[in-house]
Amino acid sequence: MPMPMPSRTFKPSNLCIVKPILSKSSLSDAVSSLDLLRLKGIRLPSHVLATLLRHCSKTRSYREGKLIHLHLKLTGFKRPPTLLANHLISMYFSCGDFAQARKVFGKMESRNLFTWNNMLSGYAKLGMMEQARSFFYRMPHKDYVSWNSIVVGYAHSGRFSEALRLYRQFRRFDVGYNQFSFAGVLIVSVKLKDFELCSQIHGQVLVVGFSSNVVLSSLIVDAYAKCGKTDDARRLFDDMPVKDVRAWTTLLSGYAAWGDMELGAELFSQMPKNNSCSWTYFLRGYARNGMGHKALGVFREMIKHQVRPDHFTFSACLSACANIASLKHGKQIHSFLVQNNIKLTTIVVCAIIDMYAECGSLETAKRVFDLVGNKQYVVLWNTMISALAQRGYGIEAIMMLNNMLKSGVKPNNVTFVAILNACSHSGLVEEGFRLFKSMITEHGVVPNPEHYACLTDLLGRTGDVIGRQKSKGVICDLSTLNIQEIPFQSKIVNIQDK
């Protein structure tokens, strides 16, 4: 039987079929019903399909997004109109499939500025700055969204000089501003802990008349606080005509980060409304500043006030237990999670493993790790390797690394800092140099200052072993470790036009 041809226009009489589909609470159920529409010869209006794709992007529902794309092809949209193509590109980038996003872009008959910005921001958010740069310079027209995306992309990628260079260029063009136009350079100022740069940005915000913008003012408060200038952050905060929850929690996290919990507690008590986020920042502040018992006290108050904790809250609580080596409280929190059927996210599992290890129960930490079903997250392996390394179990840490590689998980720079420390603490000099070499040649990890510090520590433990290692070709020639090649970032404080 031939398949019914889809309707070219959406008829009001079709609403009785479509309404139940659109009212479904589950995105998966709604998308699964598209086949029924296709068989009845019905094609949903573009704005409805765009809404479904927007939900896929927001929830990173790759399977459902692919099914919508397939539905478009089967109903005659082999080359979707610009509106739908733009949403397809957003969906694919949100789900990390840049190759499919590029294919959709390549097949588009008509592209608008939103299309180009979509591709640019998609590559930038994935850290693919060479591709982002290529699209940026190919764009027939650019607006402030284009410039914002490329500057923020370089800032997040750690390429601060390039971010500042492009920001200076952006200021020369009359393409307008919005509150996010300053986000990239504020990120740079935070990463470099550069108060002067932050102050310059603040001045520019005042000049362009955005000082009353709550979002932007909160970003500057955050930047001042992270640069260690909590007094300046407080002055700006006090001058804000309107303060939202973000502004309050931003300043609170600043006090917590710099250990000023007395002012942090005072600010917390003044907050007109506390949510899970502000409670967690307050709790985490005590935990990070060696006041674990106070952190646990905050957690008890939070539960008493019927504020629902999230996985960041539990992670902070477990860190507090680890800091004061309180196995009793750590077990209570672990039991609370299990008894209340709270989903254990990777961040919480890592905190549980770290807590047991710090409290001297390494076997329990290992059992928790073994019980994890999905071990595809590198941070999980790094946590377990670090736990073994810090307690002198070098051979076991190396075995854990081997299991990690067998599981198909790619080690990163943190993995090798942990494993090199394990070798150093356990006196495994030959293994340490072998792993340092394989880190570069086999795994493509560029050594950073922490790796070189581990290497120096290993060299301090060589003794008469060094001759045997050289004869085996294990130790690389130290003259090849050019200090100029270590990826330090120079500090740039002036963003004024040259």
Q: In whole angstroms, how far apart are the ends?
A: 72 Å
Poorly predicted residue ranges = 1-5, 467-493
**Assigned CATH class of the domain at 1-111:** Mainly Alpha
CATH architecture of the domain at 1-111: Alpha Horseshoe
Number of β-strand runs: 0
Q: Overview of this structure, please?
A:
The chain is mostly helical. Among the domains are: 1-111, Serine Threonine Protein Phosphatase 5, Tetratricopeptide repeat (Alpha Horseshoe); 384-491. The chain has 29 helices and no strands. It has helices spanning 15-22, 27-32, 34-39, 46-59, 62-74, 82-94, 98-107, 113-125, 129-138, 144-156, 160-172, 183-191, 195-208, 214-226, 230-239, 245-257, 261-270, 276-288, 292-304, 311-323, 327-339, 346-358, 362-371, 378-390, 394-406, 413-426, 429-441, 449-459, 465-472. α12 runs parallel beside α14 (214-226), α15 packs antiparallel against α16 (245-257) and α23 (362-371) packs antiparallel against α24. The longest helix has 14 residues, at 46-59. The relative contact order is 0.04. Pfam families: PPR, PPR_2. Keywords: Repeat. PPR repeats lie at residues 112-146, 213-247, 275-309, 377-411, 412-447.
